[in-house]
Amino acid sequence: MNSKIIANGILRAIGIILAIALLLFFLYKIQSVIVYIAVAVVISLIGRPIILFLRERLKFHNTFAVVVTMVLLLGVLTGLVGLFIPLIIEQGHNLALLNIEELQGNIEHLYDQIITYFEFNNIDVEASIQDTNVLSKLDFAIIPNFLNSFISGLGTFSVGLFSVLFISFFFLKDSKLFEDGVMTFVPSGNEERSKRSITAIKDLLSRYFVGLILQILILFVIYTIVLLIFGIDNAIVIAFLCALLNLVPYVGPLVSGFLILLLSMSSNIGENFSQVILPKTIYVMIGFIFAQLVDNFFTQPYIFSKSVKSHPLEIFLVIIISGILFGVVGMIVAIPSYTAIKVILKEFLSEYNIVKKLTKGL
């Protein structure tokens, strides 16, 4: 091996490394576009069953079926916006004009009532937390600042929303558009198996995302009923946020439980703690636990068994590992990614025993 061959090999390796670096830099710069495409793919998967129903059962033309589907999805989105934006604006206006000292005083008053109640029951709570000076460290002025930042980000959100809807329309109109884009990266000779894999992935993930919507809807209805029964302010907004948090496996229900607990107590500031706040909060948390039991023993098993066709223990391990490696985002995308990987393994590596066992139900 002479020096010329070695030099050419080194230059080729450097060129490949530079090309990969440039590609990663390019992907980093257009990460917002990648997110738009990913969200559009999810929307197209959710709308796919509707389009198939309109085309096959009602004999709609493809373009008309897409338009009707987009109108339905936009109607749902508009309904949510129409429901929540006025409430958010009202709360934002109230918080923008909020007397921060009054808010802090109200919370300290609630804190004093809690301590007094537990001291009456011979439970020394204050002694365990007084050294931390939690209340003195809380900066309540951050609330209006956060709302100002939120409003300033609405412009960027509007651009992203338009981009997602535009891309989603063409993904729905031409179901092979995304598939053809993926097929350009498939080596020759693997086209047929790749097409079968993409079709199977679309079917499974469509059922999965529709199932997630059903899961959120069931939790939203239960939370709303519970909060309205006990007169919690902004019950619909709280119920929707807590149901949406359930999309984050295992961590989401804990956060939503803490949120309902906090908001249930804070919505009754000024009332007697032992006679009003504590009983009402306990009843609300019982309703929350009931909703979680329905979700854990009915909704989630149905989604996992009927859509992604994976064992609950298998799903649990995948979510935990994804959370350790990639954080909250990893937990959210764990099940769709794992399902896609299983389909690809079954199509291309079905001769291995471990693949046969993992993909037995597919």
Attribute tags:
362 residues; mainly alpha; 15 helices
Concise overview:
The chain contains 15 helices and no strands. The protein has 362 residues and is mostly helical. α10 packs antiparallel against α13 (273-308).
* Largest sheet entry: none
- DSSP, total strands: 0
Low-confidence stretches: 94-99
What structural class do helix, strand and pairing data support?
Answer: mainly alpha
**Global geometry:** globular
What features would you describe in this structure?
The chain has 15 helices and no strands. It has helices at residues 3-29, 31-56, 62-96, 100-120, 126-129, 134-137, 142-152, 154-173, 176-183, 191-229, 235-245, 251-266, 273-308, 312-348, 353-358. The two termini are 51 Å apart. The relative contact order is 0.08.
